[in-house]
Amino acid sequence: MKTETRTDESSSHLDGFNKFEIRPQLMEYGKKVTMGAKTDLISCSIQVIANGGETNMHAHGGNDAIWLVMQGKARFYTIGPDGNHDELAAELDKNEALVIKRETPYWFESASDENLVILRFGAQAQNEPPRRIDHDDRQFTVPGAEGGVQREIRFIDKFFGDE
Description:
Shape: globular
Order of helices and strands: EEEEEEEEEEEEEE
Largest sheet: 5 strands, antiparallel
Distance between the termini: 18 Å
Mean pLDDT: 89
Number of domains: 1
CATH topology: Jelly Rolls
Strand order of the largest sheet: 4-5-12-7-10
Number of strands: 14
CATH superfamily: Jelly Rolls
Radius of gyration: 17 Å
Helix content: under 10%
Structural class: mainly beta
Number of helices: 0
């Protein structure tokens, strides 16, 4: 992931710009999350998922999100009226997006044979601390959090955007 931030004094009027590249390495197996850019109000992460999905049913407090599929297909689930954690909320194809309001429980998975490349744009609510709200035990570890096992990751020699 290549990120550019201008630092020379002659370009101080450009300090508010942060260019980043969306070209993650694709995978044979596993999931990888890379932060593209972040400010105190907004963030963009790039996720690649070769198979399977999110760690568990969870929500984000203080943070609304837009999910945009760049490659593959994604299925998002929520808690149904009967308490079941597999209620289909949306299925997204390439170039389709979904808004998930803060505190809304969800999990998602790759729903095709090709790698899912998906962007998550997060918008931080003012005067609300960001937090993750787990509704189930974690299946896999998440940096900075307890629970779960280490996920196996196997990369292939190809990057998103390669023809």
